[in-house]
Hints:
The structure is a single chain. This protein has a 3-stranded parallel beta sheet. Strands 4-5-8 form a 3-stranded antiparallel beta sheet. Strands 6-7 form a two-stranded antiparallel ribbon. The protein contains 20 helices and 12 strands. It is mostly helical. It has helices spanning 20-35, 56-67, 82-94, 105-117, 133-141, 189-199, 215-225, 255-261, 265-273, 288-294, 309-322, 325-338, 348-361, 371-379, 387-393, 399-412, 418-432, 436-448, 456-463, 465-488, and strands at 7-10, 39-44, 73-77, 98-101, 147-150, 157-162, 166-171, 179-181, 204-208, 231-235, 238-239, 305-306. Residues 11-13, 45, 193, 207, 211 line the site of glutamic acid.
Amino acid sequence: MEMKTVRVRFAPSPTGSPHIGNIRTALFTWLFARRHGGVFILRIEDTDRARYVEGSVQEIMLSLRWLGLDWDEGPIFQSERLPLYRQVAEQLVQSGHAYRCYCTPERLEELRRQQEAAKQPTGYDRRCRYLSEQERAELEASGTPCVIRFAMPLEGTTVFQDAIRGELTFENALLDDFVMLKSDGFPTYHLASVTDDHTMSITHVIRGEEWISSTPRHVQMYRALGWELPVFAHLPMILGTDRKKLSKRHGSVQFVEYIQQGYLPEAMFNFLALLGWSADEDRDLYTREELVERFDLSGVLDHPAIFDGQKLLWMNGVYIRQKSIEELTQLCLPHLQEAGLLPSKPSAEQVEYAQRVIALEQERIKLLSEVVPLTEYFFRDTLDYDEKGVRKWFTQPYAPQMLEMLTVRYSRLEPFDLPNIEASTRAVAEELGVTAAQVIHPTRVAVSGRTVGPGLFEMIEVLGRERVLIRLRAAQHMVHRTQQAAATE
Ligand code: GLU
C-alpha cells in the first residue's frame, strides 16, 4: 500500500488570545507531523467577522514560535479564499445536497420561540428545503437575501472512525440543515473547514473534543462531494484538578500569560505533551526529540486530561536547574529590568553581578519572574526589613557590639571571600560568647532585611564588601532605634 505523506493543520480562529487548550492542540498536531515526517500547516479560520479580535493572529503565531512549533505552510487565511467556498456551496446546491434558504432572521427567531414554548428541540424546520420551483424563482426574482443550507439525510445514522475513540455513531434525525454559506457570502466553519481540509489534502484532522458534534456534518459533506474522508482524531478536553472545565479559577488559561510569568518553552512543551497523551512509561521528563520519537495518536487518552499547575511549576524548576548560569541570567534579565532592578542597558559589570546573584537562587527558582521577589534586596539601596526578624534579633543586647565587630573585621578582610567571611563571622560569635546561629541570624537581617535566603556567607560574598558595610551601618542605626524604643516602652 502506498503511504500518503502526512499533512496536518492547526486551524485556530482569531477570536482572542489563544487558550492553553488551543496550543495543546497545536503541539499534538505538530508532534504528529514531525513524528511521521509530515507537513504542518497553519490555517487561520477568520471567516467569522463578528468574533474577530485584532491582534490574536499575532498572539497565536508568537505562541507557536515561542514553543518552537514551526509550520511548513501558511499562515493561510480563510478570508482570502471566499470564492472557493462559494463554489463548493454552489456545487452542492447543483447536486441537490444543499439548498437556498430565504427565511428571515425574524422568522427563525419566531420559530425558535415557538419550539421553546412547546418544549421541542430547537432547529430549522426545513421550510425552504421543500419550496416549489416557482416559489424559489419568485423569491430569487424579488432579490430576497438567502443563505445556503446543507440538506442532511433525514434518517439513518452517520458513522465514522475516530483514531482516539473508535467508532462513533450519530442519529441523522438529530442533525439539522446547518448553514454553510451566510447571506454576506462568508462561509460558516463547517463549509470552510471541510473545503480546506480537502483542498489542502489534509490526511489527519486533529482537533479538540468540542468539535466532535460537528464531525458527522462534515462526514455528510465529504460524502455529498464525493471526497475521501481524512482520519479524524478528537483530543480529550482539559479539566482542572477539581475535574471542572479549565477556567480562570485554575490560574491562567491564556497561553501568553505563561510566557510572561516566566515559564520556559522546554517545560511548557514537555508539560503540554503530557496533557492528554502518555507513552505508557513511568516518567514525566522528556526532551523535544524524545517526544517527537514517541508521539502517536495511539497514546492519546480517551478521557479528560487534568491540568495540574503545581506539576507545571515543578517541571519548570527542573528545566531552570538544567540551564547554564549564563543562559539563566539572560532569561532573568528582562524580569529584573522590568522591575526596575537593572537598567535597560546594564553594564557588563551589572550583568556579572546579576549572574552571581542568580546563581545563589538557581536551585530555588521555579518561575523566571520569581527572580524579582527572591533577589530584589541584592539590587536595592534601601532594604525592607522583616518586622519579626527585627523584633527578635535587633533587640538582642549583644547586637550593637556584634555589628561593630563585624564592620571592623569585614573592612579588613583580604581577600573578601567566602572562607574569610565565614571564619571572621564565627570568630565574632566566639568572642561574644554566643552561638554561631546567634550571629548568623541577626547578620542576615542586617544585610538582606530578611530571615530566609541563600547561605549567609555566600550572600555576603556576592553582595561585596562595600554594600555589606553600608548595610551594617544602616542596621546599627536601626538597632539603636529599636533598642531605644524598647527601653522607653
Ligand atoms: N477554528 C476551529 C478552532 O478554533 C478549528 C476546529 C478544527 O480544527 O476543525 O478550534
